Amino acid sequence: GGYMYFTWDVGEFETTPGDNNGTVIITDYIGDETDVVIPNRLRGKKVVSIDDSAFKDKNITSVKLNKYIVSIGINAFQNCEKLTKVDMGEAVKSIGNGAFSNCNELTAVKFAPTVEKLGHVVFGNNKKLETLDLNGNENYKFVDGVLYSADMTTMYESLVSADFSDYKLPETVVNLNGYAFYSQNELKSVTLNDGIKKIDEGTFIDCKSLEELIIPDSVTYIEAFTFAD
Question: How far apart are CA 148 and CA 226, in angstroms?
Fold first, then answer.
């Protein structure tokens, strides 16, 4: 006869069943470790997702996701004020709105090469974050503090650490993700490119120094909260 032992790690995470049999979603972190490594399995089931707000407000300093996690939920790591380093693992495809926002000490982010869907203001208001390691991801391009689509037609997000005192959109950009200029307090003037059809929700929210915005005739719709604060 023989014995097999498993380490379940059930004391650190609360979970709910995933969409597929044999998978779970982390819904809350209740552990004491500050350097968190998400295990491949819990109770023998693959950990495939981080749920909305699962780590929100937690006292963690780093996180490394496993090789099975495909989604990071809305506000999943929001307000982790001591978080300095993020490694998204190898399989993440989607990241929800505000997933890593208001992480005041965050300086290092390693993307998953598989990310293909981004929410709004994923890294919002992280004053110490100056660059993103795309880790070979071919869906995006990071230039001078701004995250674009690989073909430079969509502007997804600008880091608040970027120098936006005098900013001009690349001529190729015809789409602005919601909250694209979130909290760019030094931004004074923007001329939008002809071809942009919609100004999405909250695009210029909290741009306290904005004095001039040139809107081309191609724009036919401006969503809510575009100029809030």
Answer: 20
